[in-house]
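[Q] Does anyone have a clean structure-token version of this?
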Amino acid sequence: MPTPRTRKLWLAVSAGTFALLLVAVTVGFRRPPVETPVAQVGELDPTSQPIQFPHDTHAGQFTMSCQYCHFSAERSVDAGIPPVSLCIGCHLEGIVGGRTEQAQAEIGKLRSYYAAGTPIPWKRIYKASDHVHFPHMRHVAAGVTCQTCHGEVQEMGVLEVVAPEAGDLRMGWCVSCHLERGVSRDCTVCHY
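[A] Here you go.
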């Protein structure tokens, strides 16, 4: 049986080791916070997107599921951006060419990217900080709709800014949602 002196020594060594580990983690390995550029109100000129993609036409008028284009959302961390080959499936010459001159011009741009074999250089709007993991597949599997975070996309034209529903993608907004739904708030759920 350990003596009282041995127990005190063990406690002192354990406390010292824990303190050193805590200092190493919080100071020694600390990276400065990385500001992730996410479009906020007024920061992104809507004409800066390479193609003026109308979500209200595709998801609204034609009631296309978000996951038709963002097909990796149900099985991946990222929702993904559809490849040009998916878009051109409907917008080949002679199939869907657009009803207005503006739509025809945008579809023309799509066809040009396809003909050149280059991806569309979309400007990112939604991005969580680098120290946060947002696994789309877990949220889709839990029945969280795309609109919960991204707003009523089926009513939006060209996505320009983060929807107010996303709470600027800040931790408090996510924690509130987890509280409402009775989901774990353990740090390692999002920070791993």
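[Q] Thanks! Anything notable?
[A] Confidence is low (pLDDT under 50) at residues 20-44.
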